[in-house]
Structures are given as structure tokens and as C-alpha cells.
Design a protein that fits this description.
The chain folds into two domains: 117 residues, no CATH class; 41 residues, no CATH class. Helix content is 68%, strand content 5%. It contains six helices and two strands. Helix 4 packs antiparallel against helix 5, helix 4 packs parallel to helix 6 and helix 5 runs antiparallel to helix 6. The longest helix has 35 residues. The chain is elongated, with a radius of gyration of 25 Å.
Length: 177
């Protein structure tokens, strides 16, 4: 290989490596500092099997009664069934959505700091590009983690902010003279 091609390969290898490691660092450091909700703490798995045959006893135990609309007495099917984990699962889902939102905000802030920091390293192209790309990847990871929990208005806001940041970076980095 020519020396110029070798340095380009090395440069891009360093950039890709730094982008990946920066994002792994963000996510693992965040998981150490801010613990994800544990389903078992919200809905403990009890070894005892509780049979609940009526709507009132199901609701009294925090469950949700589900009617069996295909009930036919001659088939010996039950009238319905009880989902005993309904309430605790809703509490867990609520805690998980809050966690996802907070992780999203944290990763977006870290990504924005990386993108902004990338502009300050104009003297070292590898570090500048690595930080900028790491910031963009952080936006992508944050959005993917939070996407299912976000409502449509938040999704549009996420995309608008990402687009504005990318246009800003393009204008700062690639200004035609």
C-alpha cells in the first residue's frame, strides 16, 4: 500500500474505534450510575400458585380480570381468567418509560457535547471527526432506545433537533470559501 492510503486506513480505523468506544463508555457508565428498573422487584415471582376464579378476587389481589367471550358452558371453559401481574406490570412499565426518557435525555446531552467538542479540535482532524461522529451515534442510540416509549410529537421533535444539529455541523465543518 502507498503511505497515503495506509494513513487514511489508519485514520479511519482510529475514528471508527473512538466512535464505538466513546458510545460504549457513555452507555456502560450510565448503566453504573443509573440503574434500570428490575421487573422482579415490581412483580416478584412467587413459587405459590394462586388460583383466582372470580373477577372480584382477581381485582382485590391487584390483577385484571379478562372475560372469555367464547364461553360455552358445554365446553367446560372458564368464564374468564385473571392476570395477577397486571398492576405490578403497569408500575414497571411506567418506571421503564421514565428510565428510557432519562437515558435518552442524558445520551442526547452527551452527544451534543461530543458534536460541539468535535468543532473545537480543528487542529486534530481524527479527534474532531471522532467526537462529531460519536455524538451523532449517541443521538441514534438514544433515539432507538426511547423510540417505542415516545409519542409522535416527541418523535417529530427528536428528528427536528437531530436535523438542526446535523445541518449546523455541516455548515461549521464544510463551509465553502
Amino acid at each position: 500500500m502507498e503511505p497515503n492510503k495506509t494513513s487514511k486506513v489508519l485514520k479511519w480505523s482510529l475514528i471508527v474505534g473512538m466512535v464505538i468506544v466513546i458510545n460504549l463508555f457513555f452507555n456502560y457508565a450510565l448503566s453504573l450510575v443509573y440503574k434500570q428498573p428490575d421487573f422482579a422487584k415490581f412483580c416478584p415471582n412467587t413459587a405459590q400458585v394462586i388460583e383466582v376464579n372470580t373477577k372480584d378476587s382477581c381485582v382485590a389481589k391487584g390483577g385484571q380480570w379478562n372475560e372469555n367471550n367464547n364461553y360455552a358452558p358445554q365446553k367446560f371453559e372458564s368464564i374468564g381468567y385473571c392476570d395477577l401481574q397486571f398492576t405490578c406490570r403497569q408500575d414497571y412499565d411506567s418506571a421503564q418509560k421514565t428510565y428510557d426518557r432519562n437515558v435518552f435525555v442524558t445520551l442526547v446531552i452527551l452527544g451534543a457535547l461530543c458534536v460541539a467538542g468535535g468543532n473545537f479540535f480543528s487542529g486534530n482532524m481524527v479527534i474532531g471527526q471522532s467526537l462529531s461522529l460519536a455524538g451523532v451515534l449517541s443521538f441514534i442510540v438514544a433515539s432507538m432506545r426511547y423510540w417505542t416509549s415516545a409519542n409522535d410529537a416527541i418523535k417529530v421533535a427528536i428528528l427536528a433537533i437531530a436535523l438542526i444539529i446535523l445541518i449546523w455541523v455541516a455548515l461549521k465543518k464544510f463551509r465553502d470559501n
